[in-house]
Write the structure tokens for this entry.
Amino acid sequence: MAGASGQAGPAVRLGPRLVLPPAPGALCRYVSEWTATKLRWDLAVDAAEQGRLLDIAAGCGTDTVAYTPAPQ
């Protein structure tokens, strides 16, 4: 999310590579929602981010991420 300066805050710039919710029980939901947002808006994922997402998701069971593509 952009702040008053119009620039993305640290959590948005760093994402799940370095910024995670403090509650361990929230990790799976966080990763699912982060991934859905990336897919919805067709946003790029670098190798470090993808690796971290996959590491966390490995402990989340077999749920799939549901999303609706953004209108074009």
